[in-house]
Amino acid sequence: MSNPDIKGKQTGKWTMKEPYTKARFLSRQARGAVDLLRPFTLTAPFIVSMSIMVASLVFNYRYYGIAIQADWWITVGQAGFTVALVNAASNALNQATDVKADKISKPYRPIPSGAIKAESAQSLAYILYLFALLRAVTINVWFGTFIFLIIVFTVAYSLPPRMKKYLFINQIWIAIPRGLLGIMASWSVFGSEKLFAEPTPWIIGAIATTYLIGGMATKDITDSTADKATGTHTLINTFGTKKTALISFPFMLFPFLFVFIFINAELLANKLWPLSLFIMLSIFIFYLMMRETESKTLENVHAWSIMYVEYIFFALSFAIITIFYPELPL
């Protein structure tokens, strides 16, 4: 049987929940800085944003004749990185302001474990926010505007007025930048000319936001005791997990059913009807929330992980259908 301390010194820290040890290539502080940004949670904004960007590029060329830039792929990479960077800054700021709660529920995180100081984490967050904003405005004005709004929402979530502590408002507050604003920022990279004339991105953003209002409750399951002890009121620590699952379920279910309503109103293309099939994954998330099974490697319950996976595949499916499939009748 191997000694975990020896293994850690030889191979480093593989998961968030393992103790910080000096590795061969990364110091405790370096690995702590990486964990501070929470790389797993950055996959969703990165993949979602790039999917929406490419979809908008093809959409606006096909329906509005907006020319495709020769270096479009460079713009997609830069803008996608910018969106992910804003989320990384948000993660760092959130942990810098949640030290008391993390000492209770997540003592393995870089700040409560002593790998990173809270002041350093907050400074890193501000640097990342500034860099992301400066990068965003060089792409176009609308992209810069949406990135600025995302920054405002995420900063106000963690710092005064600290919207995170207010019951139900916290669910809506975090869903808006990760849903509507994130999708509109991505769409605006190539679709700024018809930003207010085309309903498709707004509807897709609204669907994503509504889904996330329900889905984001999954992140509070393991933090229930710590949140309550530090004055943060969530659905989980107010109503319990099972009641929260029942409250959240309609938000995760109905947006996908409304796809047919938008299609019938001619606000979405007929070919987008397969997006309604994501109700199946929402049902599965509801089931996992009721079980409250915590992951041994990731930071939260399995429902939280699947919630991010569903969001990623929703955006990918929208992009694939928009790019590769012609209009199809229902």
Can you lay out the helices and strands and say which pair or pack?
Elements: H1 4-11, H2 28-37, H3 39-64, H4 72-97, H5 99-105, H6 118-137, H7 141-158, H8 169-191, H9 200-215, H10 224-229, H11 235-239, H12 241-264, H13 279-291, H14 302-324
Helix pairs in contact: 3-4, 3-8, 3-14, 4-6, 4-7, 4-8, 6-7, 7-8, 8-9, 9-12, 12-13, 13-14
Question: What do you see in this structure?
Answer:
With 330 residues, the chain is mainly alpha-helical. The chain has a single domain, classed as Farnesyl Diphosphate Synthase (Orthogonal Bundle), CATH 1.10.600. Helices cover 68% and strands 0% of the residues. It is built from 14 helices and no strands. α3 runs parallel beside α14 (302-324), α4 (72-97) packs parallel to α7 (141-158) and α12 runs antiparallel to α13.
**Whole-angstrom Rg:** 20 Å
Proportion of residues in β-strands: under 5%
Estimate the global geometry from the Cα principal axes. Answer: globular
What separation lies between the terminal Cα atoms?
59 Å
Average per-residue pLDDT, rounded, comes to 90
SS field, number of helical segments: 14
Order of helices and strands: HHHHHHHHHHHHHH
Oligomer: single chain
The CATH class, by name, is: Mainly Alpha
Question: What CATH architecture label applies?
Answer: Orthogonal Bundle
Low-confidence runs: 1-12
Number of domains: 1
CATH topology: Farnesyl Diphosphate Synthase
